[in-house]
Prior knowledge:
- It contains 15 helices and 16 strands.
- By secondary structure, the protein is α/β, with parallel strands linked by helices.
- The strands form four sheets. It has a six-stranded parallel β-sheet, sandwiched between helices. Strands 12-13-14-16-15 form a five-stranded mixed beta barrel.
- It starts with a helix and ends with a helix.
Amino acid sequence: MRGRVGWLLALVGWLLGVLWGQGALAAAPREVLVLDLEGPITPVQVRYLERGLHQAQRRQAEALIVQLDTPGGTVEAMQRMIEVIRNSPVPVVVYVAPRGARAASAGALLVLAAHVAAMAPETSLGAAAPVGLQGADLPQILQQKATNMLAALARSLAQRRGKQAMDVAERFVTEAYALTEQEALGLGIIDLVARDLTDLLHQLDGRVVETARGTVVLHTAEAQTVPLPMNMLEEMLLVLTNPNVIFLLLLLGINLLLAEISQPGGWVSGFLGVVLLALALYGLGALPVNWFGLLLIITAFVLFALEVKTPGFQGGLALAGTLSLIAGGLLLFNTPQALPFQRVSVPLVVAAGLVSAALAVGLLALAVRAQRRPVVMGPERLHDLVGRRGLVRTRITPTQPGTVQVAGELWTAEIEPGQQPVSPNTWVEVVEVRGSRLLVRPVSEGSHEDVAS
């Protein structure tokens, strides 16, 4: 009897626990994470999106909203973001916002890849034709390859939206076609137009979407939006993908290393130079780079060094180095894959090139001057100490060396054989230099100039 009562109590407890857990789960507010993806699409933005999806999955969020405002980005970064979105078990909503925002170039294909595509009023979408530096067309064969590849990708992403949407998506790439939010909605390119996030959540509620884990019904009417901003590391890496910043880091890093060479013995300038060059190399790895431009920058500093070592300083090599530095900066990001926002500022390159050239020549001149300076102390000049007089600072005996101040420095000294011990404040004369030690003998009087010179 007691056993049956125990089993019954255990069953009742288990049922109460299940009901309590379900009630707590039901009471917990639903969450929708919001990412703010603004600016060019770079590998840093890919990292940001991946972190956002990981957080959304861990927190069991209803959806992840990517608020998008971009002029475009690199093809590699775009393709990686599309892969991440299409393989996400959490519904991804790409929302072109706020008013005045755009999803151009690569951004248009991100909208097509979303599980739900939305736009705010007064926004635009499209113009995804591949371009080169400063918006110029690519060479014909490369242009055709890039266009065909992106057009096929656009059609594939728009396939689930119907034939009309596929044709429009292809025109994004082949004709640089662009749409307003109402035109995109009418052609089936996007799913809805929402005034703000609150309106977007209400329109998303009850919508059925297909994700990597299957069919999902969104429950967002009462969901709580949770902003997920970039962390400090992502913000720093985003700055390091700015071509102007990369160019300045290169110049500063090289000049700090030259400062270390001109004044050896310290470590601060050399350490900072290495750090800045490492940061610049990260940026160079994140963007398409013309390595000929980097070679010209290195050549410029070689020309500066040759100018400094040339007798008479004619200035011709310095001028050639300055021109090489400026040309290298302008060519550094001049590649067929570069986008209009990935070019450096011409006034910045010219100004920074002139200043950097002056600094480099000055620092290298200091380094050469230091190398040519006569040796102040060492084996070549130690014989000059013989005959100099100094003041004993610690007692010297025939068996115990002491210290003597000679020529403004403290030296370890031994007494000449046959001499008596010498007490502090006694004047002595240097008889011989033995390695780093002096052999001295007492004198009756000394010269203050000998000690302080």
